[in-house]
Amino acid sequence: MARAESTRTPTRIQREKTEAILAAALDIFAAEGFRGATLDQIAEAAGLSKPNLLYYFDSKEAIHQTLLERLLDTWLNPLRQIDPAGDPLKELGAYIQRKLEMSRDMPRESRLFANEILRGAPHMSPATMAALKALVDEKVAIINGWAKAGRIEALDPYHLIFSIWATTQHYADFEVQVRGILGPSEDGHHHDASAFLSRLYTRGLTPG
Amino acid sequence: MARAESTRTPTRIQREKTEAILAAALDIFAAEGFRGATLDQIAEAAGLSKPNLLYYFDSKEAIHQTLLERLLDTWLNPLRQIDPAGDPLKELGAYIQRKLEMSRDMPRESRLFANEILRGAPHMSPATMAALKALVDEKVAIINGWAKAGRIEALDPYHLIFSIWATTQHYADFEVQVRGILGPSEDGHHHDASAFLSRLYTRGLTPG
DNA sequence: GTGGTTTTTGACCGATTGGTCAAATGAACA
DNA sequence: TGTTCATTTGACCAATCGGTCAAAAACCAC
């Protein structure tokens, strides 16, 4: 019984099936939320029977938790890349671009996190939240340094980051509303949003 | 059998119990989402038995739908109040303030809508969406007028409105994350957010 | 009070849910 | 080939879900 949680090195089948399950689960969880998603749905999307799925993961929560922890790293990459040695306006502008691209290219991940946070982050470990806070604090210090040096306008960095998160993720999380108001259009929205946010934050952050 | 849906004028008890149910349902739906909320939870929170609750509303969906339609009006009031005759910067600044206050004072309503839109607005009628679009279009025209007259910077009004929605509602919808990063503090956050957004949009929208 | 209506209740139902289990099957290596 | 371990399956289960129904209780105008 070398189940997924075993410490032994996983077999080829274990790797493949585990990936298939997580891919399917991302689809379902993002679309239906944790409570709305069912194991049968996930199993079918992954091409497995329900008991077979539960051979690889102990529970519905285990799948969800694995997904959250795996994707958080990816999700925070754009923030991680902010370079204290770079030009402040360029760094922040590039950060906004990266976040916007993530919103466009990984909307399921965005919705997965949105669902989780909306419900009060019940499946997020304190350690994970602490790591998130540590990363934000680190970047806040950088931005504060830039502001103190007069290289950008002194705006509260915490709320600056929140506003960037909010505006960029909005296009993934509330896509239905955006499309409903702007009309269909395969993806002209991304370009418009990019131009808008670029101008808003450039004007907002340019010193003087 | 003068059930809630009857055309007859409602009795005192009908009015009272209907309100109690909707108040309880707002609590539960906002916290658990539509699928996560159960009729038993709502009934208990409203101080009724489940069959008694179903005497006033035909189904879980009926409660949810009633809630959505009732609250959308309130929710859109800040946008409605934008006055084409007013000073552009003052009008938009005041709009942001009103939205931020709503986020602070009505977080349950914010989360109710966030849940609904996140899942693709499955309980929102096309008519409601059309009305929303019409209101946005109307205000977009006003903002475009201001921009053409050179009274504010010419930024895409649709994305301007989206960004205001996103940034203000973020403080209600993702409150757990905000608190986790900023630390507890009963409500100092609101003041900080208000100051930040005020400066960001003033700088972003001031012409020239 | 009385009669008719509204409101409330408990007992119940079929469907779905997350999850278990023993047995059957498959893969791989000696 | 046989053996051992990994994988898969179908049958099953208890709990929970949204919802029904007939009868009891409460309400209210007369």
Measured by DSSP, the beta-strand proportion of chain A falls in under 5%
Count of spatially separate domains of chain A:
2
Instruction: Summarize the largest interface: chains and residue counts.
Output: A-B, 50 and 50 residues
By helix and strand content of chain A, what is the structural category?
mainly alpha
Question: Radius of gyration of chain A, Cα only, in angstroms?
Answer: 20 Å
- Please state the overall shape of chain A, judged from the principal axes of the Cα atoms: globular
Could you tell me the number of beta strands of chain A?
0
Describe what you observe in this structure.
The structure is a homodimer of 208-residue chains. With 208 residues, chain A is mostly helical. Chain A is 75% helix and 0% strand. Chain A has ten helices and no strands. Chain A starts with 11 loop residues before the first helix and ends with a helix. In chain A, 36% of the residues are buried. Chains A and B meet through helix 1, helix 6, helix 7, helix 8 and helix 9 of A and helix 1, helix 6, helix 7, helix 8 and helix 9 of B. The structure holds a DNA duplex (30 and 30 nucleotides).
How is this fold's topology laid out?
The structure is a homodimer of 208-residue chains.
Chain A: H1 12-36, H2 39-46, H3 50-56, H4 60-80, H5 88-105, H6 107-118, H7 126-148, H8 157-173, H9 175-182, H10 188-205
Helix pairs in contact in A: 1-2, 1-4, 1-6, 4-6, 4-7, 5-8, 5-10, 6-8
Chain A binds a DNA duplex (30 and 30 nucleotides) through residues 1-3, 11, 13-14, 17, 38-40, 48-52, 54-55, 58-60.
